[in-house]
Amino acid sequence: MSAATDQPLNDFTTSVSDLPWPLLQALAELADAPLTQIADRLRDATLPYLGSSALVIFTEDCTGRPQKKAGEEDIISRVSIAELDALRAALSDETPWFGEAEIGGKPRPVLAVTYAPSHALLVLTDPQAAPGQKDPAQTDRLDVVTYLWRIAARRIQEKVADAPPSYLLESRAASAERVRVTAELTDLHSTTLETLLAALRSSSLDDAAARSTVTDLTAKALVGLRILSDRTTDLVEEPVANAFERLREDLRPLTRFSGIEVEFIEPPLNGRALPGEVAHAARAIVRGLALAMMEQPEVSRVRTQWDCDGENLLINVRDDGRGALTADAPSISRLDRRVQALNGRLRIDVMPGWGADVFVTLPLDLPVRPAGDVAGWNLAARELEVLQHLVAGHRNRTIALSLGISENTVKFHVRNLFRKLDVGSRTEAIALAHSHGLR
User: Fold this and answer.
1) CA-to-CA distance for 394 and 388, rounded, in angstroms?
2) For the HTH luxR-type domain, which residue ranges apply (predicted)?
3) How many whole angstroms separate alpha carbon 317 and alpha carbon 271?
4) Where does a domain end: 188, 204, 237?
5) What is the average pLDDT across 141-151?
6) pTM of the model as a whole
């Protein structure tokens, strides 16, 4: 081989050695991350560029587990949906924001970044430094962190879109349990606060100014509690009209650039609210059907219609092509698996020369799981005993006395349960256990 031939190889070797291999490795691991590890992988990837005490992802794509967290336990165990929602509402665009916000029950320095396609939020607590005009290196590091976040947010969208049946069922169970617990807390605190209001308004109290001040504060607390309850419900239930409007927004780019007309037949305004997973899956299914139909020749119009019979979401998507779409097409098979994951049905009627008509039925209620379907969790015998006590509503002290172990040992088993079940609270662990038949 001549020197002239060797030169490009030498240049190539030099350029490869100069590549940022740690960053590329982090990108590869992040792009391959399962949902259960996405927060840990993202934190590992960002730490070399922007240190932080904790990382929190807030995404409504995962309605049963809207938070994904990594870092200091004292922070990630206390952060709430209300705190994250308030922080996200204060951000106007995807520009990284540095400031102070209440996270984990107290004000902390944070970096917050949103991801517009899914409205997801990334929060890094106690970031080591904020970029300044005279520190371009720090600005570059922030750009890397933002880039990594966008990859993670997109990965979450993709994983939820292709979620297996077990994930969808468990997510719905956790969502339903969160609504139930929030409703109980709302009733409890509402009764307490309303009683307090009645006492403070009593004419037997002499200090009118104090009574007026406390009355106002208590009234505001009531309003805040109700808002929190409504917000939690919104995360796991979506009015059918709102869900359909979000579908229209999703498909608007197709109508704008494809030259194909998309007709929307709206559902009744008073239809039953959709569980979050059903609403999310329905939009993904219709998007997939619309794209598959538009790839056919001679399609000029696609019509989509939603309806609700009280027990099911009924979807119909039809094109005006030549009827070339088939049930065994890869795109349709993939969508059918998504429908089956929610215990639904997909039927396609092909009319040669007239187009394809696809009917999808998605049940709105959670299917019952067979009892004892927990082998996949790989729980030790003691961990399963602790889980059964949690399901029974027992606290750590009661579990310790019953099993003859210390409370610290119970806490150790509970932490292991959270990790193996991929949940962030006792409530979610109980909900997941219920969905697998444990009572």
Assistant:
1) 9
2) 373-437
3) 19
4) 237
5) 93
6) 0.57
